[in-house]
Amino acid sequence: MGFEIEMKLSAPVAAAIFSAALALPAAAAPASPAETFPGAPGVITLSGKCAKLVVAKFDATKGCKNELASVTLVNGLVTFIFTSDGKALGFQGDGSGIKPASNGNARLPLSLVTTGVGNKMTGEVKVAGFCTFGNPYAGKPIAIECTAESKDSSFTGSFRTGGTLVKKGK
């Protein structure tokens, strides 16, 4: 699909991201309106529409899955994971750096883009960029927009929810 960028990912980070992502329950209890996003350690899966997924000049939007995973690790790292044709692209940053943005949104500064196939992360690249997002617990549609650049490439992911509740896992 075009995610074949030479990268390295630490085994513990890859294992944590995809172990958590694969541990999602079939059904989850409704979320409390007071919850924040991305929230406590665990996995949140959003359903909606993948509007855009581009790596460098390769447009993977056509095969992009209409689910997005948000993984928060115990150390505070937050990763938004887009998937397309069996491959994964994760936008990762330190959750302690999340700041308010316009229109009630929040902004996560990015430090890494991770890549993988199936449930195995195979690489990472240092980047600068942001993910801007709303709170899906508010019960209305939100957007998650991620853009990042490395010294050799650019990455863009855009996802829009339908406003329904999310699936949570630990």
Description:
This protein has an 8-stranded antiparallel beta barrel. The chain has 170 residues and is mostly beta strands. The chain has one helix at 11-22; strands at 42-55, 58-59, 67-72, 77-84, 87-94, 99-100, 106-117, 120-133, 143-149, 154-161, 167-169.
Layout of strands and helices, then pairs:
Layout: H1 11-22, E1 42-55, E2 58-59, E3 67-72, E4 77-84, E5 87-94, E6 99-100, E7 106-117, E8 120-133, E9 143-149, E10 154-161, E11 167-169
Antiparallel strand pairs: 1-2, 1-3, 1-10, 1-11, 3-4, 4-5, 5-7, 6-7, 7-8, 8-9, 9-10
Features:
170 residues; 1 helix; single chain; 11 strands; globular; mainly beta
N-to-C span: 30 Å
**H-E order:** HEEEEEEEEEEE
Shape by Cα distribution: globular
Quaternary state of this entry equals single chain
Rg, nearest Å: 15 Å
**Spatial strand sequence of the major β-sheet:** 1-3-4-5-7-8-9-10
Tell me about the largest β-sheet. 8 strands, antiparallel, barrel
- Count the strands? 11
Number of helices: 1
Mean pLDDT: 81
